[in-house]
Amino acid sequence: MLQSDTVPPVAPPPGMTTTEAPFIEQAQRDHRLFIEQPYALYSEQNHEAWRRLFARMVPRWERYANPWFLKGMQSLCLDADRVPRLEDVNKFLSPLTGFQAKPVSGYIPSFIFFDCLRNRQFPTTVTIRRADKLDYLPEPDIFHDIAGHVPMHTDKAFAETLVRFGECAHTAAELVGGIKDEHEQVRRLTSIIQAMARFFWFTVEFGLMRSGPAPGLAGLRAYGSGLLSSYGELEHSLESPAVQRFPIQLEWAINQSFEINHYQPLLFIVDSFDHLFGLVDELERWLRDGKLDNVAPGEPAVNEADLASFLHAANA
Asked: Do the Cβ atoms of 268 and 289 come closer than 8 Å?
């Protein structure tokens, strides 16, 4: 064969590995929050990471997940061996609750995130963690979002709770928009955003639920996505004597700091999704009454992007 006839080797796709995806880096440089899922870019290593993550979670979901999550997993018909196409996920999800997974290029400022929930859209990361570092998660990935969050979005009561929570962000922007002093706007919004972030963390991300008449831990199941997508922490949350578990009280949740880089030492329990919806109603009443204006300081810190997103909505 002549040298000019030699076919150059085809380079493997660059992949969609978390923190290593050129597609995402370019989208972020272009300031594109909302994107299309570039499915052809997933490498075989990406699909292997999904396969391994899914396979090891199945027995833990069967043991520790709430029944609505398990039903949701069946409804979504996720492929255990391949990274899901979001358009396929939405074909099963949307008819059930109107929700859709909406691909994003990374972090979404908090007002925009809550506004998406209000509109039955769930901002969904499209990268996936490295296949050789399944327990290391520098930021949310598609396994956390699709296998952790989205099965819960198939349940009508839980979906309505997310929509209601998204409406709270609009209430906050409306209330703060009536304040003329910019310094006071920032002070109040900082406290409100902290309160909302903490509530979301201790419910949607790391919530436990009563799931039957059995006493003690035997009657509890996980519904928080941070638990349902974590092989180690799901078991730890319901088996470890080091974890404190209490029936949720709103004043505790909004004043309780948390850190993201270790297993959670404190978890809160709801009785049902109706109970959770009622708590979100109460959260909005407290918001209108000014009870979120001075929550306890501490983590999580409110970053400039989150604050700016709320200020923009408040002053629009």
From this structure: no
pLDDT digits (tens, 9 = 90+) for 235-261: 999 999 999 999 999 999 999 999 888
pLDDT in tens, 209-226: 998 655 556 789 999 999
User: Which amino acid, 291?
Assistant: K
pTM, two decimal places: 0.92
- Structural domains of the chain, with CATH: 9-314 (1.10.800.10)
Strands 100-104 and 244-247: unpaired
CB crowding 168-178: b at 16 or more within 10 Å, else e: bbbebbebbee
| CB-CB contact of 99 with 299 (8 Å) | no
How are the residues of the chain apportioned to helix, strand and coil, as percentages rounded to the nearest 5?
A: 55, 10, 35
Mean pLDDT computed over every residue of the chain: 93
Beta-carbon count within 10 A of 127 CB: 24
Direct distance between the N- and C-terminal alpha carbons of the chain, in angstroms, rounded to an integer: 67
